Amino acid sequence: MSLSETLLLAFSTYGLPALFIFAALAAVGLPLPVTLLLIVVGSFVDQGDLDLLTVVPVISLAAVLGDQLGYAIGRWSGPRVVALVTNRLGGDKRMAQAAATVARWGGLSVFLTRWLLTPLGPALNLTCGVTRFSYLTFLAWDIAGETLWVTLYIMLGKFFSDRVEAISATMGDITWVVIGVAGAIFFGWRLWQSAHQPAVPSTTTPTG
After folding, report:
1. pTM for the complete prediction?
2. How far apart, in whole angstroms, are the C-alpha atoms of residue 158 and residue 3?
3. Distance CA 189, CA 176 (A)
4. Closest of 46, 48, 47, 49 to residue 11, by C-alpha
């Protein structure tokens, strides 16, 4: 039985409490296919088995709590714990990517890594804690991003409940396509910005 099948079985057996735990663990950094579960939840909402106004805040809260744990580890734990968690989250390279993203985008980086650049989310949580990024700013963008993420995929499952299996099978491809398009737009904008920067006049003193 695959991991996705195991999680789906747990969800069908224990319901929303199981999904709450999965969402929190995924936010901490465990590679769980929670996006797939959100689509399935959407199909249950469409069939009237779950209430949309209940599941969205509950799952969003779980994800936010997981993110807060990552932030807290970075901010208040010792160097050895941070180093251990860093290795679990992809090593120094992933942390460097997260640090560069925070430096470039600030609070917006928290928002984007909740629903669009999700693979970078756990490392960015830790980075924000280590760098003592404003907690209230982190929390506000985190709540907004996680709520959007949960709502997007639940509504996707709700509106296409008769095609949930097909959508779930292609979720990995869809996610990477979205990331690829977003990356292409970003780098294109950076190239345009570089091309339109005014030339810096030379300060070399003529000789002779």
Report:
1. 0.80
2. 23
3. 20
4. 49
